[in-house]
From TrEMBL:
Molecular function in Gene Ontology: hydrolase activity
Composition-biased stretches (Basic residues): 101-127
Keywords carried by this UniProt record: Hydrolase
Protein's recorded name: Alternative ribosome rescue aminoacyl-tRNA hydrolase ArfB
PANTHER family given in the database record: PEPTIDYL-TRNA HYDROLASE ARFB (PTHR47814)
Annotated region (Disordered), positions in chain: 99-137
InterPro entries named among the record's database cross-references: Pep_chain_release_fac_I, Pep_chain_release_fac_I_sf
Keyword Hydrolase attached: yes
Domain Prokaryotic-type class I peptide chain release factors residues, every copy: 21-37
SUPFAM superfamilies listed in its UniProt record: Release factor (SSF75620)
Family the UniProt entry places it in: Belongs to the prokaryotic/mitochondrial release factor family.
Length: 137
């Protein structure tokens, strides 16, 4: 069971974990042992509240397919157990980040003193650059 928040959890049957061989270099062990993990989570078939489902499907994340399936590949660690933990933690972080409500930005204008400081700095910089010209005797 994966806990997303205080009142939202995911059952084990909702998350499909498959063992695969890891890619990349690693010597003899990497060719024999299937220690990498493919985690699949179908958003539509899950027991997540509708708010979570809508927010996840609205994300433009390459780990979410067009069918609404989250696919996470974990192969950082050497053991299968640590890769499973890593994949589950990444799924939990993805769902929590989708549920986070960001504060709406209110457009602001710089103050009069800030505008004055900016223009003063620009003129001072321009004078410095003007002094770099060629010196004529």
């Amino acid at each position: 069971m994966l806990r997303i928040s205080n009142n939202v959890t995911l059952a084990d049957w909702e998350i499909h974990i498959e063992q695969v061989r890891a890619q990349g270099p690693g010597g003899q062990n990497v060719n024999k042992v299937a220690s990498a993990v493919h985690l699949r989570f179908a958003i539509h078939r899950s027991t997540l509240p509708p708010f979570y489902k809508e927010r996840l499907l609205a994300l433009s994340d390459q780990r979410i397919t067009q069918d609404g399936v989250i696919i996470i590949k974990a192969q950082k660690h050497r053991t299968l157990e640590r890769n499973k933990e890593d994949a589950l933690a990444r799924l939990q972080a993805l769902i929590q980040s989708a549920a986070a409500v960001h504060k709406k930005r209110r457009p602001t204008r710089p103050s009069r003193s800030a505008r004055r400081k900016r223009t003063d700095n620009k003129t001072r910089r321009g004078q410095t650059k003007a002094l770099r010209g060629k010196v004529t005797p």
